[in-house]
């Protein structure tokens, strides 16, 4: 019931498909003899043409959510995209095929294939754990995170997390659930079935609401939207206004809105400072103040600079009102100079100016002490030299006195 294996299955393990598709070299003598006898020249088998890629009917995120995208591992490194597309086109219509390559452009032996219907996926899955061009291939459903197998199904589902090996997803892992009723303090919504909608599309949908930030989830491999987004609002009342758009059309799809339970982030005791991370290198103090516009108790904003005098990606903001500190953390996920930043409580104590002054004084004191030691050593050396000179003078006097006594003795004799 598997049907015909792909053409690369019939090839020797040492010969790639592309090398075996050309017709065998025909003898020129045979062709000439056939021409002289008036016989038709023998037909040569032309290499099969690669089917043209049809127009896509779904985005990658949509196809993946519908189980129409498969991941294939173990592909012979000598087989390219054209051969793969031609071989697996026997399973059904291929809308997209992506062969993973390394930094040098060589095949990694892994690829993603997007089919148009479930029947094609089922046909491709039949070749799981079979030989293909001399190597054993493995065909699995490429599903998004939290994707659950269909009830009663035996499909092995892999979650796609990047360019590395797909990791096996446990069937016992429950999908993330959303509260049916609005939780207390809820200021965020999870939007699903958004297709390839961008941040601008979502903001336009919610243009009558005070949107604080929009985060569109994208595929790490392709960079395309995965059909899901998270929207934060300035006030909890804005969530109710946004929910009025639940089910409305968004680029031809009915958007689904779900409440997001607020994260509990209690302020540490005595904490009056927040840290802002993942900042762009061109961020200035005024950009940080703009992020916390409306919080009146800001006492200081410090952008940490690197050796090039550019923002190192980190800044600190101090407040005098604890409520403003808590409000500042709620602005986590907003953008500064077009880049999403992270805001969190900062619990490390700031180094006081007094501490710095004491350290400077101690350093200056050490320098003075060192200079005094050098001076004393130098002065001690000079005194030693003078002592030696005085000693030499005394010796000369002694020698002179001794010489005089000897002269007197000789005269007495």
Describe the structure.
The chain contains ten helices and 19 strands. Strands 1, 2, 3, 4, 5, 6 and 7 form a seven-stranded mixed β-sheet that branches. The chain is flat. Mean pLDDT is 75; it is low at 11-37, 39-45 and 147-175. The longest helix is centred in the C-terminal third of the chain and has 60 residues, at 353-412. With 413 residues, it is an alpha+beta fold. Strand 2 and strand 3 (107-115) form a beta hairpin. Helix content is 30%, strand content 24%.
Order of helices and strands: HHHEHEEHEEEEEHEEHEEEEHEEHEEEH
- What helical percentage do the residues reach? 25-40%
Q: Give the averaged pLDDT, no decimals.
A: 75
Note the total helix count: 10
Throw out a few tags for this protein:
flat, alpha+beta, 4-stranded antiparallel beta sheet, 413 residues
Write the layout of secondary structure elements.
Elements: H1 17-20, H2 28-36, H3 60-65, E1 69-73, H4 81-88, E2 94-101, E3 107-115, H5 118-125, E4 130-132, E5 135-143, E6 157-159, E7 167-168, E8 188-192, H6 199-205, E9 211-218, E10 225-233, H7 237-243, E11 249-250, E12 253-254, E13 256-260, E14 273-277, H8 285-291, E15 298-305, E16 311-319, H9 322-329, E17 335-336, E18 339-340, E19 342-345, H10 353-412
